[in-house]
Amino acid sequence: MAASVAAETASPAAAPERRTVPLTGLRGAIARNMGQGWQVPRVAHSVDVDLTRVEALRAERAAAGDKLSVNAFVLHAVAQALRAHPRLNALMREKEVELVDDINIGVAVALDDGLMVPVIRQADTKPVAALAAETRQLAEGARAGALTGGAYQRGTFTVTNLGSTPVDRFSPIINPPQVAILGVGRTRQQAVVKDGAIVAAPVVNLTLVFDHRAVDGYPAALFLGEIARRLEQAEFD
């Protein structure tokens, strides 16, 4: 009886503390920007790319003391492809698509509390090593909060890379007012056919997401195909 009375009079267990992430500051800006990007009538094209020649070139450069990431080669291929396919290097305006002469590629950088996209300006004029060095500098500056606001402005295209994660492929959200973004998955060993034989090769998936109001599927496919060709043939000026 006493045990029953004690159970009835005991205080109820305290409710667990409610934890939230306020949509203010950086997180709020990301939420607004991604909300705008999600409204875009977007289409995704995807291709697997054989990086055998890129990896051989990376090893050769590493032996000479020059450490280059896969992303630097991707950035170079993208920049050159944008020069040949200017409809992808563009900004969506209210009643028009603005084609931009300068090729300014935003590089997504993950922070502890969000995502920032500093910009490599005139990326098509820079060799792979310069792109690699500038990407490292921008990433370090973004993570340290040392970049000025101008470092994040005037982007015309974005590359976002999840190569350091287990993700093979993904479809990123366009960074408005840009009309396209490229998602880069991890490099993995995969069976491919070469000269009639099945061999293992380093393969990466590239997914291009584009605004169908600005670009149709066929020219977007040609653009993605040129990026793939440049990487597979190690075509780097």
Automatic annotation (TrEMBL):
Organism equals Azoarcus sp. (strain BH72)
Q: Which residues belong to any copy of the 2-oxoacid dehydrogenase acyltransferase catalytic domain? A: 17-235
Does the keyword Acyltransferase belong to this entry? yes
Q: What is this protein called?
A: 2-oxoacid dehydrogenase acyltransferase catalytic domain-containing protein
Question: Which GO molecular-function terms appear in the entry?
Answer: acetyltransferase activity; lipoic acid binding
Is-annotated flag, keyword Coiled coil?
A: no
- Taxonomically, the superkingdom here is Bacteria
Q: Which cofactor does it need?
A: (R)-lipoate
Recorded GO CC terms: cytoplasm
Provide the alphabetized UniProt keywords.
Answer: Acyltransferase, Transferase
